Amino acid sequence: MPWMFEWTVALRFLREGRMQSLLIVAGVAAGVAVVTYITALIHGLQANTVNKTLGTQAHITVRAPEDVVVPLLPAQAQGVVVSDTQPRAQRLRSVANWQQLVPVLEAGAGVVAVSPMVSGAGLALRGEASQAIALMGVELERYQRIVNLREKMVAGRWGLAPGEAMIGVELASDLGVRPGDRFTIDTGSVTEPVRVTALLDMGVKDLNRRTVVIPLRSAQNLLGVPGGATVLDLKVADVWMAETLAQQLRQRYDYDIESWQATNAQLVSALNAQSISTAVIRGVVLIVVVLGIASVLVVSVVQKRKEIGILRAMGTTQAQVLRMFLLQGAVVGALGSVGGVLLAAVLVQLFTFFARDAAGGALFEIHLSGADALSAALTATVCGVLAAVIPARSAARLDPAQAIRM
Question: Nearest 10 degrees: CA dihedral of 390, 394, 397, 398?
C-alpha cells in the first residue's frame, strides 16, 4: 500500500516522543479553538448589531430630490457680489410616479419588498400632554415585509384602519394611553383624532417616544401630500449588497437614493475594523501554531538522527524520509484541529450560558458554523504540513554514515 511504510514510521516517531507530541497537539488545539471561537463571536456580534440596526429601517430608501436653488447671476471672475441667494425651505415632496415605480422596483434583481410611506413630523395631544412625534403613514402589510412590526407589538391588536394608530410604548406612557384610547395628531395645518390599536417596542427608547404608525391615506391627508408617497422603502436579499444596488438605481433614476450603509457609515466602519482585527488575530495565532509544530519537529530530527541514518542505510529514499515528517506535521495539525473545534464548541456554549443581558436573556446568539469549523481545521492541518517542510528537508538531507556515527 503506497505510503504505508512512511505512515508506520511517522506514527512511531510521534509515539516515542509522546509527551512532546501531546503538548504540541494541545497547543494546536488551543490555537484552533481561539481562531474558531473568535470568528464565531465576531460573526454573532456583527449579525446582532446589523439585525438591531435594520430591525427599524429599510435597506434602501428612495426619496424625491431636494429643491435646488439656482443663483440669480453666475459667479464672475472679477467683481463684487452684491446679493446672496438663500436656499428655500425644504417641504414634503412626493416621489414622482411612485405608483408606477413600485412594481418596477419590486421586479428588480435582489429586491425582496417595496413599501410606500408618507413620513413627517407632528404633535400628539391628549389633555395637557403634548409630545413631538414622527408620523409614518404606511400600507401595513407591505411595510410588515420591510420592518417586522408584529414581533415588536407588546400590547393591543394587529391592524390599522382609518382613524387608528400604532404607537411606541414610551409615547403611550407619556400620553397616558393604552390600546383602545384616543389622542389627537396635530401637524400644524390639520388635526385628527386617532384610536390606539397597539403598542410597539422598537428596541430604542427614542424611537419608542416618537413613533406613530398610521394608514398611508391618513398620513397623506395630515401631511398635505394627497395621493403621494414621500419615501419608498426597499428590502434586499443580501444586506451587504444594498449600497451596490443603490448605486445601480442612482444611475437609472433621478431620485435621492440612499442605502443603510451610507446612513450608518460609522457603524459599517466599526464592523470593518472588527473584521480586520479578527483577521489579524487569526494570522498571529496561525503563525504561532506553525512555529510550535516546526520547533517540535526540528527537535525530533535531532533526537532521531541515528534512526534516520539507519533507515537511510537500509535503503529508505530521501523522498520517503521527507514524507515521514510531512505526515507527522499533518497528523499533529489534524488531531489539534479536532480538539480545537470541540474546545471552541464548549466555549460557545459557555458564552451562551453566562453572557446575559439585563432582562436575563442571552446577550446575543453565536453559532459555531460548520463552514468556519471546517475552514479552521483545514487551515491548521495545512499549516502543520507547511511547518514540517523545513525539518523534513533537513532530515532527508542527512548523510547516513555521519548520522549513525553521532
Answer: -170
Is residue 117 within 8 A of residue 102, CB to CB? The reply is no
- Set of cell numbers at residue 29: 488545539
The backbone region for 362, taken as left when phi is positive above 0, alpha when psi lies in -120 to 50, beta otherwise, is beta
pLDDT for 354-370, tens place per residue?
777 666 666 677 777 77
Residue by residue, what is the 3-state secondary structure of the chain?
CCCHHHHHHHHHHHHHCHHHHHHHHHHHHHHHHHHHHHHHHHHHHHHHHHHHHHCCCCCEEEECCCCCCCCCCCCCCCCCCCCCCCCCCCCCCCCCCHHHHHHHHHCCCCEEEEEEEEEEEEEEEECCEEEEEEEEEECHHHHHCCCCCHHHEEEECCCCCCCEEEEEHHHHHHHCCCCCCEEEEECCCCEEEEEEEEEECCCCHHHHHHEEEEEHHHHHHHHCCCCCCCEEEEEECCHHHHHHHHHHHHHHCCCEEEEHHHHCHHHHHHHHHHHHHHHHHHHHHHHHHHHHHHHHHHHHHHHCHHHHHHHHHCCCCHHHHHHHHHHHHHHHHHHHHHHHHHHHHHHHHHHHHHCECCCCCECCCCCCCHHHHHHHHHHHHHHHHHHCHHHHHHHHCCCHHHHHHC
C-alpha cell at 269: 466602519
Q: What is the pLDDT of residues 180-219, one digit of tens each?
A: 999 999 988 889 999 999 999 988 888 999 999 999 999 9
**Residue 139 pLDDT:** 93
The x, y and z cell numbers of residue 316, run together, are 529508505
Distance (Å, rounded) from C-alpha 369 to C-alpha 42?
A: 12
Mean model confidence pLDDT for the chain: 81
**pTM for this predicted structure:** 0.74
Residues 6+ apart with CB under 8 A from 276: none
Q: Please say whether the beta carbons of 293 and 388 come within 8 A.
A: yes
For residue 207, give the nearest of 171, 174, 158 by alpha carbon.
171
Report the pLDDT value the prediction gives residue 1, as an integer from 0 to 100: 47
The C-alpha cell at 249 is 438605481
